[in-house]
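note to self — DONT lose this again. spent like an hour looking for the file last time. sequence + predicted structure for the chain T wanted, 189 res
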Amino acid sequence: MAGTAGPLEVDTARYSRVAVWLHWIIAALVIVNLLLGLYHEDFAKPVRAWMMFFHKSTGLTVLTLTLARLAWRIGHRPPPFDAVMKRWEVRLASFLHWVFYLMLVLIPITGWLLSSTGGKPTSFFGLFNLAALPVRGDGAHDLFKELHEIFGKAMIGLIVLHVAGALKQHFEGHRHLIGRMAPWAYRQR
């Protein structure tokens, strides 16, 4: 069967270890933060405050790691898309990668702007504070809250599309493609 080679038959170009680990660490933090953001209102005020403390700190961590990942990507070209992918799949995957980067920057920034509307600094895990950005007022609060929520929901959609695309390739017999970004499948060369 043409185009359905398995991982042992194809020497697939892989992402670097740094890119792989940044991908999975950021992915885990984003999922945790989405859950904290979506469900914090379901808890009592003391628990909600604790959840938002971690939500903000984790968001700043995601922003920092995303900037590191972008810097790494600029200096380290990712592997080419696999030849088994159709042209529209390559275009969609490339577009979605850049939309992911955009959302991974915009979501924490709108969260920081939202926090800043109260005029108080944002604590980073209690280690240090980031100054409030120069935004104030109910109008700014409502705007950044709405943007933050829209971007968060867009991130959920992106994650669904990303996982669906990976599973589509996997179940079509292109199992080696998941190995490009899977740390457990990293082969020593």
